[in-house]
């Protein structure tokens, strides 16, 4: 492995066995955990979250590029969320055919009509990238997507740094352990939440984590919660059902749930259609959006993270409208864009369909969905597009160039999976946090990073889905 772990370490079976035992013990001690339910009727168990045995080599220049860009991406997302005309134009075709996005957009319109109740904006996002291997052999940083809603693994990635440093020290690679960069996104994300809570102005009010009924990734969230406790910020964990049953607004539109005043709603649930199991859940989302509580994200920031917005931003001249006095910033952001193509009705969309059908392995077909496991690849692109190439339903998707990173070798520690050396692909995320009150930016920072790695045989999938695993960059 170039610039990585020496082959005599990678291939030493006895050492690998010892390192795996050390790694699992360290993961349990560090709290790098996942909640597992064996069967619908069985009790839950806790085990280590999947991770790589060794950190993965990552070139220092694109790593630093991703971190440096994050404050600009924070600004871009925030500006988009404040531009209702842009959102209307960008999403017009999508909301005509995609019911989920359309319902979110109707809430957005209602909030605009009533007037925003809260001038404090809190954004916690993560911009994800891969290193694209060009025909000339050079690698360049290319964005996969930006997550503006429930960007996860900020907690766990704050703990895996020490985990991998411990593994390298036990392997006799002390000097290499110092090539793993410091990382504590949990503290940075919590710092932004705490700032929004402080600006809200009530010590009795709580930060409400809105969570799923069966939350596998609860330990990742807890690290952020612990950081808030350190800052004496009160928290509570509630579900949509709790808001349905006991949520209310007073005459000042202050939000109360189970008798607690809510200063900040931190959405960790609500980004997929299946999260809204009844009309009451949609009513609960609207109630929270109408309230004085700071929303993370608010409805317009949620829409700013859609795939369609990502595709529209790649059009010539669009980024420049958001950075009229900073052309160099627009240029830096645009340099990270892969090819993004519309599937709207008309000549441009027809051209995209023909291009995808002619060479499906070059592209990824993306619906307006978050959470991993939604994208379409290879021959499946042909199956999907053949069935709708003449129909408006294609407007619910965008097409994107497939990013082609260089594989590396590693061991993936996945529960109940055989331990073997694998060809792996990695994805780098940069965490951003910002707080704005009115027109004044109170905070805008890159607060850390995340590296996820998967076997090269997998096209799509996240850590919680059991495909990708947690990792750390070994900078060179």
TrEMBL record:
Pfam families xref list: GSH_synth_ATP, GSH_synthase
Catalytic activity, EC: 6.3.2.3
Keywords assigned: ATP-binding, Glutathione biosynthesis, Ligase, Magnesium, Metal-binding, Nucleotide-binding
All residue ranges annotated as the Glutathione synthase substrate-binding domain in the record: 205-304
Cofactor: Mg(2+)
A GO CC term attached to the entry: cytosol
Coiled-coil zones: none
Textual note on the cofactor: Binds 1 Mg(2+) ion per subunit.
Pathway annotation: Sulfur metabolism; glutathione biosynthesis; glutathione from L-cysteine and L-glutamate: step 2/2
MF (Gene Ontology): ATP binding; glutathione binding; glutathione synthase activity; magnesium ion binding
Top-rank taxon: Eukaryota
Family: Belongs to the eukaryotic GSH synthase family.
PANTHER family: GLUTATHIONE SYNTHETASE (PTHR11130:SF0)
UniProt function note: Catalyzes the production of glutathione from gamma-glutamylcysteine and glycine in an ATP-dependent manner. Glutathione (gamma-glutamylcysteinylglycine, GSH) is the most abundant intracellular thiol in living aerobic cells and is required for numerous processes including the protection of cells against oxidative damage, amino acid transport, the detoxification of foreign compounds, the maintenance of protein sulfhydryl groups in a reduced state and acts as a cofactor for a number of enzymes. Participates in ophthalmate biosynthesis in hepatocytes.
Protein name: Glutathione synthetase
Protein source organism: Scophthalmus maximus (Turbot)
Gene: LOC118316661
């Amino acid at each position: 492995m170039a610039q990585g772990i020496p082959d005599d370490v990678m291939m030493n079976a006895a050492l690998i066995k010892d390192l795996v035992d050390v790694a699992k013990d360290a993961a349990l001690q560090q709290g790098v955990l996942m909640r597992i339910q064996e069967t619908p009727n069985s009790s839950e168990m806790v085990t280590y979250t999947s991770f790589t045995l060794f950190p993965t080599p990552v070139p220092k220049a694109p790593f630093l590029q991703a971190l440096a860009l994050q404050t600009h991406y924070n600004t871009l997302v925030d500006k988009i969320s404040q531009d209702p005309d842009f959102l209307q134009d960008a999403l017009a075709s999508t909301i005509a055919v995609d019911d989920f996005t359309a319902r979110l957009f109707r809430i957005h319109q209602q909030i605009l009509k009533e007037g925003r109740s809260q001038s404090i904006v809190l954004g916690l996002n993560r911009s994800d990238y891969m290193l694209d291997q060009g025909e000339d052999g050079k690698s360049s940083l290319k964005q996969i997507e930006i997550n503006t809603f429930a960007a996860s693994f900020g907690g766990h990635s704050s703990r895996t740094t020490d985990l991998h440093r411990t593994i390298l020290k036990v392997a006799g690679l002390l000097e290499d352990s110092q090539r793993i960069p410091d990382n504590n996104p949990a503290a940075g994300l919590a710092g932004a939440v705490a700032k929004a809570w402080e600006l809200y102005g009530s010590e009795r009010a709580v930060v409400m984590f809105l969570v799923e009924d069966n939350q596998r990734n609860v330990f990742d969230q807890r690290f952020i919660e612990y950081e808030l406790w350190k800052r004496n910020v009160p928290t509570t964990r509630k579900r949509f059902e709790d808001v349905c049953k006991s949520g209310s607004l007073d005459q000042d539109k202050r939000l109360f749930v189970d008798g607690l005043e809510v200063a900040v709603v931190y959405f960790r649930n609500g980004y997929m259609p299946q999260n809204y199991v009844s009309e009451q859940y949609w009513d609960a989302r609207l109630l929270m959006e109408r309230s004085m509580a700071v929303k993370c994200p608010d409805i317009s920031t949620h829409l700013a993270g859609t795939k369609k917005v990502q595709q529209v931003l790649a059009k010539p001249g669009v980024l420049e409208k958001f950075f009229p006095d900073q052309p160099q910033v627009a240029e830096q952001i645009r340099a990270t864009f892969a090819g993004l193509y519309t599937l709207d009705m008309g000549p441009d969309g027809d051209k995209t369909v023909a291009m995808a059908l002619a060479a499906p392995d070059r592209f990824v077909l993306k619906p307006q969905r978050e959470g991993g496991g939604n994208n379409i690849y290879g021959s499946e692109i042909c199956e999907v597009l053949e069935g709708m190439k003449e129909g408006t339903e294609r407007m619910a998707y965008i097409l994107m160039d497939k990013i082609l990173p260089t594989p590396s070798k590693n061991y993936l520690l996945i529960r109940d999976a055989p331990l073997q050396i694998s060809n792996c692909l990695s994805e780098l995320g940069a965490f951003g946090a910002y707080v704005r009150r009115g027109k004044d930016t109170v905070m805008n920072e890159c607060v850390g990073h995340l590296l996820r790695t998967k076997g090269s045989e997998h096209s799509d999938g996240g850590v919680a889905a059991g495909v990708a695993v947690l990792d750390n960059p070994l900078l060179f």
